[in-house]
Structure formats: structure tokens, C-alpha cells
Amino acid sequence: MSEPAKYDVGIVGLGYVGLTLATVLAESGSSVIGVETRPDIVEMTNQGIPHFTETGLPDALSGVTRSGKLRAVERFDNSFTCDTYIITVGTPLSADGVARVDMIEAAARDIAANMRDGALVILRSTVKVGTTRDVVAPALAEAGKQFDIAMCPERTLEGKALQELRELPQIVGADEQAVADRAAALFRRLTNSIVQVSGVETAEIIKLVSNTFRDVQFAFANEVARLCDAFGVNAHEVIASGKLGYSRTNIPMPGLVGGPCLEKDPHILMESARARGVHLEMTSAGRMINERQPAETVRFISTEINRRKLAEQGPLKISLVGMAFKGLPETSDLRGSMSIKVLDQLRKAHPEAEIGLYDPVTSPEVLASEFPDDRVFNRFGDAVSGASVVVIGNNHPSLGQISPRTISEFISPDGFIFDYWNHFSHLPASELGDSYFAVGNSGWVPADV
Question: What is the pLDDT at residue 404?
């Protein structure tokens, strides 16, 4: 029987995190094998075709698959083994808001069966504090083999992942210095910027705290928007003017807050804290503010629809443009998209409405598959033409290129625009007309104010 092929790195999970990391490691000269249970993604990867939109990835992936530096398989078997294994599988929230670990456990057991004595195993998925020590390590130990384990959290921004894997400091958490050095040596193939921390729990918390901080920041911006609506003041003006030349008040602009990280990581952090009897009040409040925004803003949209009697003027047509969870850097990722939450609220509030969808990046075919009950448009112009209401759901720059005054010439005579991202709030009132509203610029008083 021939010896199994030996790879430098095995990546378990070829989603956004795993595939970008596998590609960059392969470009750095490492031999990489990716293990992914979805056969269509394995096939696309081996053809050098990414299964999601990411700047620079098509050319990079094509190059490393052609050179043989990266290949993908559906499962572990005896034909190969690896020096280092990196777990990048997802940790979605269950229905009761608890981070699932079943995929982490399964990955660890698969690795345990495949690894040789002395393998290094790195957990990169976002997890509840204690998962590395209490879930992954015991699953590996069951195989009775010697191994090293480290936690090195992923922190890249979708749309800039390849660039940031080479530029961002890589966090390395391990209980022993020799193990930390070993994990650091792997990531030094990508970047010289390595931050070694004192243990695996420290590394786990760093990732959760980073994203939760952003979530709370955005929640405060949305709180400012609610305040400004109550007083008939423009939140964009308040925030933009207040921080001009004054760096101590660097408040972000309001808008929808979601995506695969921000909708999930604060909940994982709160779950971790509750396990030690700690309630994170500010984190909880931030999530509550951001999660209620779709229902709250759709109430305003419905009020304006009724005030303008749009439902009495023929079929009510609502176009929601910008379906990916963000538009800048651009992505096709629908996971955790708050536009979908807005869509759900619009359907509940106006079940009779004809709802149309458009996204500048996500393909019409994907949208049609994900939302079979709604009409999908190929072009922005088609989406807004004849619409009673145009709802702008993400911050893709193309959605801010046509002014509200121009859009109003194409929508129904009494129609209006609601913009979650204040694409146009910097324009003078003469350019906005009376048919443009935005978060923090609607003149609407929240129900509990």
C-alpha cells in the first residue's frame, strides 16, 4: 500500500473563510487540500471557480488549482494526511439563539481520524468562549494521538479578504509557547504581523469583542437616527457635522446592521458571558436596537404609503434594491442580510403588494432561487420604473448614482424612496424633493418616544 500524500495544510470547510485562506496559503507556496461536504463547491473549486463574489479571487483560485497547489475533496480518507489542519466551518445560531458546535465537533473528529502524531490543529471559526479547550481538544484526544492546538480567529472583511489576509495582524492563541510559535510560523507565510496572546480563550474573545464593538457603535448611530426623527432633524447632518475636525466623536452613519458576523457574534459573546453568570447589558441593548430596525422602519414606510393613498392608485408595487448584506466592499453574500428582514416585514405589512428585488452584485438567478415568490429585476432602472415605493437596502455605491429627483421621474406619481443608507442626505433639499426619506431623515416619531 502506497504512502498517503502529505499536504502542508488541510482546510476543513471551503466557505468564505476557508476558501480565501486556502487560496492565499496556496499562493504562498503551501500545498493545501480543502475538505468540503458540498459536492458542487468541491467541483467548482477544483475547476478554479469561486462560489461567491470576492475581489481578486477568480484569478487567484484559478492559478493555484492549475498549479496543483490547492485541491478540494468531499471527505477525509486514507489517501492523504496533513501537517496542519485548520477548522473554518460555520457556527450558525440555532433557533434558540445558541451557537451550534455540531459542525465543529464533526470536523474535529474527522481530523482526529486522519492526522498523524504531532499534527497542529488550528481553530479559526468564530465560537463560544471555551470551545477550543472544551469541544475541539477532547474530540481530538479521543484518537489517542499527540497533537498541538491553537486558536487563530478569522478577521477579514468580505470584499477585501485576499488583501487583508496579507496585511492584517494574525492573532495566535495557544497555551504553550512552542505551539504558538508553530502556528505563527504558518501565518508568517502570509504576513509578518503576528500577535501572540496568552491562551486560546483570549483569542476566542478577541474576535467576539471586535465585532460586538462594531455592532454597538452602529446601534448608537441608529439610536441617534431615532432621536433625530423624533425632532425632525437630519441625522446625517448631525453626525457628519459633529465630527468634522473633531476626531473624538467618530460616530458611524446609521443603517441596517447584519451580515454573517454582526448578526451572530454579539449573541455568541452574550452566551459565553451567561455561562459565567455575567449579563452584557450594552451588548444586549445594541442587538435589540439593530434587530428591531426593519420592523420599526417598515411601520414608517406603511404610514407614508397610507398617507399618500398609494394602495388606492392601482397595484401597490414595492421595489427593494440592494439585497446582499452590504454593498461596500461589494459582495453577493445574502447571509444575515437585513434586507431580507426588511423584505419579510414588507410582506407582512402589505401582503397584497407586488414586490420586486434587485441587487448590483448578487445574480438574478440566485435571487430568483432564494426568493421565488417575488419578481427579480436585472437592472436598477427596471426595478424602479413604475414602483410605488423604492426601498434602498444596502450601501452599494451604484445605488447612490441616480439622484432622488431623477428616480422620482420614473416611479409612480405619488411614490417615494426610503433609503436605509443615506446615499443622498448630503444633497440640498432642492435635489431631494418631497419624496425622499432616509433612516434619521424621515420626520417620523417612533412609537415609544
Answer: 93
